[in-house]
Amino acid sequence: MNEIRFPENFVWGAATAAFQIEGAAQEDGRGASIWDTFCRTPGKVYAGHTGDVACDHYHRYSDDVALMAELGLQAYRFSVAWPRIQPDGTGPVNPRGLDFYDRLVDTLIARGIDPIVTLYHWDLPQTLQDRGGWLNRETAEHFAEYAAAVHTRLGDRVRTWTTLNEPWCSSYLGYGNGVHAPGQQDPAAAFTAIHHLLLGHGLAAGALRAAGVQVVGITLNPTDVQPADPTSADDAEAVRLVDGMHNRIFLDPLLKGGYPDDMLAHVARYVDPATFIRDEDEKTIAAPIELLGINYYSPTYVAWRPGAAGDDKYPGTEGRVHFLPATGPVTDMGWLIEADGLTRLLERLGRDYPGVPLMITENGAAFADRPRYDPSVDDGEVRDPDRIAYLDGHLRAAHTALARGVDLRGYLVWSLLDNFEWAEGYRKRFGIIHVDYLTQRRTPKASARWYQEVIARNGL
Predict the structure, then answer these.
(1) What does the similarity note say (predicted)?
(2) Contact call for residues 387 and 364 (beta carbons, < 8 A)
(3) Which residues are catalytic?
(4) Does a structural domain hold residue 340?
(5) Using CA atoms, how far apart are residues 289 and 430, in angstroms rounded to an integer?
(6) pTM of the entire structure?
(7) pLDDT digit string (tens) for 140-159?
(8) CA 190, 366, 112 angle in degrees (round to 5)?
(9) Which tens digit of pLDDT belongs to each residue from 57-116?
(10) DSSP assignment of 332-357, as one string?
């Protein structure tokens, strides 16, 4: 393939999430999260796996940062565990929880790595869930207070702050079909949660702005929705519906000042939006941001087909929308590999929502490492050619979007480490660094060394 180069100021990094790597679930005053509870609910997480130990990053963060520096990472996106800071989600701040992130940030900066903070990556304090979670408007207000508390400790060193990670997952998967914590199954609840999550973003963004933060953002997981038949008006209607629920219901209030009319009408099939949307809410949600994080893994193909099963992640698609199964190469998650979808998505975002810089805050793939790493017999290298091919293709797709004028500022690989993959437990590996969960030994995979070279040359 042709060699390509990225802009001189392009940011290269990696991303993780607190619950997936930290462990130390009951140390230093940390409270329980909805994921602690979910893991202990029979049948919800593969093989009963929990995040109690995970990658033990809480104790091994210094070694992990040393690995980041060895790879040449310029930025590291991590999330703060709300239950570490406020064990009950409200009230006094737990200084020992903040101490950990204080040490982490100092260690990153000492290694020349820019810390990017995500304030919420799904680990809601269980006490708040007991009061309704994201169905309770007060949770959005508490989130803003928590954001301000974290900034008070870290704001002198952290420049880039993102509020939420993938509110699509928190709402539809957590409250709609129940495959994620807290495990509720109610479309009306999913739509209510969407609004309160976005309100929480707006309130937190306002609190951060008032504290002097210059770069405030949010991370979404928009998908590239495509029709099975580009010439079909019916399939175009399927695209409109699914794109509305996955993309526009988040992007429009954030970047255009209000929810799209067709989505408000769709929501009204399940719950009256007036029961949770108040005057001035949309203005709060639309607070200016300086960065939109994009998590991309796979496109979505749909067709309009009366009687189709639909997908319970998208309430209202049953009996109307057929979601096409993958017909090409897939990852270990069964997700279609199509790098061109990233180019299309980035171009669409640049066209429909101009003026907001973008960063790919997650992109990567789960594959079964070949050969499976066994330090007693292996040569010390974890070979993952499929992951390298995936990353190479998607970086080239991102570069194509850049060349076409998209304001893309950086790329963060998902994930730095193999980790707890939510309902899949530890059986799916996304990391560029292999983790032996019995010994906690870290071994950079071939993809890590490949990525190290990409960063060093600023290109492919």
Answers:
(1) Belongs to the glycosyl hydrolase 1 family.
(2) yes
(3) 166, 362
(4) yes
(5) 29
(6) 0.98
(7) 999 999 999 999 999 999 99
(8) 95
(9) 999 999 999 999 999 999 999 999 999 999 999 999 999 999 999 999 999 999 999 999
(10) TT--B--THHHHHHHHHHHHHSTT--
Inside any domain, residue 1: no
pLDDT score, position 29: 98
Number of structural domains found in the chain: 1
Pairing of strands 321-323, 225-227: unpaired
Summarised one tens digit per residue, pLDDT across range 412-436 is 999 999 999 999 999 999 999 999 9
3-state secondary structure 244-311: HHHHHHHHHHHHCCCCCHHHHHHHCCCCCHHHCCCCCHHHHHCCCCCEEEEECCCCEEEEECCCCCCC
Asked if 185 and 176 count as a contact pair (C-beta separation under 8 A), the reply is yes
Amino acid at 2: N
6 within a domain of the structure (yes/no): no
> Residue 208: is it exposed, middle or buried by C-beta count within 10 angstroms (0-12/13-18/19+)?
buried
Write the single-letter amino acid at 124: L
The domain that holds 88 is classified in CATH as 3.20.20.80
**Phi, psi angle pair for 321, to nearest 5°:** -120, 130
Torsion sign (Cα): 360, 366, 370, 373 = positive
Domain ranges, residue 222: 11-457
Q: In this structure, are residues 395 and 379 in contact, taking their beta carbons and an 8 Å threshold?
A: no
Phi, psi dihedral angles at 147 (to 5 degrees): -60, -45
In a domain, 5, yes or no: no
